[in-house]
Amino acid sequence: MKIKLYFSQTFFTLEQQLLDFFSSKKNNDFSIFISSHSDQLDIPFLKSHQALVLPYTETLECHKKISTGLLEIIGRNNIKQVVIHFPVSPLGISLLGMEMIRHLSQENNNLELHVWDSNIEDVINRQGLTNINRDAIKVLRDELNVFMSNLNVPFILRADNKLLFYICHYLFDTTYHLVRSDLLGQIKNKGFYNALIKTTTEIDAECINESDKKIQLMLIKTLGISHDVYKKIEQYNSDESMMVTYSDTNYREHQWRHRGLGKYSKQFIGCFLKLLVKNNEFINQNRIIVHNLKADGSIVDEDIAVVKQSSVQLEDECSLFMLHALGAIPGKVSGYPDIYLLAFPTTFVDFLILHENMDYASTQKYHHLLVQAGYPDKFIYTNEADTLLEKSGKLDVLVTMESSLGDCMFALGAMKALRKVVTNKIIFMTHRRYTELARRNPYITDVVALEDQIEHALMIYRQTELSLSAYFCSHQHIVSPIHQIDACLKSVGIKPNPEQLDMEVVISANEGKVVDDFLTRHQLANNNIVLLHANIGDPNRTWSAENWNALAEKFINSGWRVIAIGNTNNKYAETQVHTFNNPAVINAVDKFSILESIYLMRKCQLLVATDSGPVALAGASDIAIVSIYSIVPGYKRIAYRHGSLGWNALCIDLKCRYGHCMQLAINADFCNKVLNTSVQIRRLNNWCPLGDTQGLQVRYSCVKNYPAEKLFEKITGFLSSDKYTRQPNN
Questions:
Q1: What is d(CA 117, CA 8) in angstroms, rounded to the nearest whole number?
Q2: 2-203 in CATH: which number?
């Protein structure tokens, strides 16, 4: 018995996989469709053809449920021949497909893979194969090998690696199903090209055979398409007419939907039509506008009536391939470039509509692909964004920070220097939990929650395209050999000046009432107060509960008042806090907001923590800081205060024979020669080359084995030195 698993996240892939299912089905085969478009399928009809349908949503819960269920079905029925179909795109469902491949390959199943195009971005990404060399192929093969051979290695689809799935044929029996596979001929590495093209099947406009009525009827039934739409189109069909497509599955989806706009509005439709018909290429010809917009039909008709054009609104499930097979498409088609249009012969396309003009990076990318594909002189440019944004005003810079609390503080530390060169607005975009913190920085004009992008998609679009945006505290800044704030500023061409790098956060005395009441209730006035952040986070930055308790005892015995701080409701669910056994330790875990925590730090004398968010928060106060560092040296993380890096701070730099080892995770030579693998940037949270080479017993030993006695001795020396400045309680 053979089982076929079809994974799809776009309608294009689903339609192709349905074609494969109906055309290659055998009596003993059993199939399962896992798709984001499950609600568009006739599930009882597929079930009658020995196929199940599982709805897919891009959530961890859905991934676990589906993978567990599929493995159970395969194991219970002792199925040894498995065919897995999944998209070549770096999508969440591709990750699910790869997880299934990994599990099944380790159980000696006979695996056959089919890798499918998903959208026009896949064709663009393939241009990256043109100059791929042996070393790059080896890195990709090593990465895939490590993932496939080790169930404990997490697999994360990265935006910087869109070519990984083109390496599958090195490990498995693989067939690629690609649009415009002729463009692969540009690959200069002929050995790689020959191996890839040998396993590639072309997807073109004839994929739904015009004469195969049985397949057509199967698709129509499965997708629930009514026949009325074809009749509507055919009444306009003639040799002189032209179809202009404007659909959710095309280039427009990439340009707007992924930026958060979702369904198209009246404003978009009207803008598109009115701009288009002003072009000489469009005037005085018999046009039919075909779309599957999710707007109200009356709105669409109203806008089309203005330009006196004929319109047919397609159903979601109706594709150009199906229209072509039924003979419902005229001799010429035009529209925004999508993967369907690209699959037609170049002679079939009259013109392509490109969004904006050649000043925009995305337009350049599409223009390059289309010229390579044989459309050198068939472009019309529209300027919808300028039209829609003309009243919004020009913003100077958009700063996006998508990482954690500590990274947010580092990004805020760069704002004063950024303000020196930005004369108008600075818009700061971050996670909602950090927006109030960002609003207290005096150099930021406005703050946007990442979760609210839909309301600000036009702003995001314009700023990104015009290079008026910056992504601070990205991976490249975190792994940089210089301080993280310096790395952020250098990435936008600003030379760091220590006098401009303080983390400024404005908090009024009235906002500290909760903290003041807490200090009064525990009678902490005029005491030496130490804050202990006993964090349980990344294992290579976590000190043991035993050590934290021993350290607390030493402070208490020395006359200090000890407060345990931290938050268990973090962005990262695995981040928690150790419990202290001594009742003299005052528990303030989960008691204060981020701003209140800074206010508390401004009332206390000392913070002791591992490399974590509170250390960065302390940069907005004058509290003395003692921080334990492991994979990263302290000089890259400790705060700038009063114009000096590490003012009133002690960095405890712990390291093994490999030193502060984070840099080694991105060192290809080290990973290849010492660990026999590719770069390990995705493993920074549990990275430990000593443990990888010498075993679990020494894993994270630099931080795990550092004794509380030694740390307290270092702290005592620091407190008695001229490097320590005692912050007053008031």
A1: 10
A2: 3.40.50.11120
pLDDT-based confidence at residue 484 (cuts at 50, 70, 90): very high
Under CATH, domain 509-654+706-719 is a member of which superfamily?
A: Glycogen Phosphorylase B; (3.40.50.2000)
Q: Which residue is associated with the tokens 């739409």?
A: 229
Contact 318, 228 (CB under 8 A): no
User: From the DSSP assignment, how many helices (H) and strands (E) are in the chain?
Assistant: 30, 27
E strands in 292-343? 310-313, 332-335
- Identify the band that residue 294 occupies on the pLDDT scale cut at 50, 70 and 90: very low
Tokens of residue 223, six digits: 């997708």
Phi, psi dihedral angles at 509 (to 5 degrees): -60, -35
DSSP string for residues in 671-691: HHHTSSS---GGGGGG--HHH
CA distance 395 to 468: 8
Helix (H) / strand (E) element for 628: namely: strand 624-629
DSSP secondary structure, 11-30, as one string: HHHHHHHHHHHHHH--TT-E
In the chain, what are the domain boundaries? 2-203, 226-389, 397-500, 509-654+706-719
Record the pTM. Answer: 0.59
What does the radius of gyration of the chain's CA atoms come to, in whole angstroms? 30
**Do 226-389 and 509-654+706-719 agree at the fold level?**
yes
Question: 285 is written with which tokens?
Answer: 């010809």
Interstrand relation of 640-641 and 644-645 (parallel, antiparallel or unpaired)? antiparallel
Q: Which residue has the higher pLDDT, 645 or 667?
A: 645
* pLDDT of residue 170 exceeding 80: yes
Q: Which fold has domain 397-500?
A: Rossmann fold (3.40.50)
As beta bridge partners, residue 83 has 4, 112
**Quick one: pLDDT band at residue 298, thresholds 50, 70, 90?**
very low
692 closest CA partner among 707, 714, 703, 677? 677
Per-residue pLDDT at 608:
98
**Which of 441, 410, 436 minimizes the C-alpha distance to 426?**
441
Q: What is the pLDDT of residue 307?
A: 45
Euclidean distance between CA atoms 463 and 461, whole angstroms: 6
**So what's the architecture of 226-389 in CATH?**
3-Layer(aba) Sandwich (3.40)
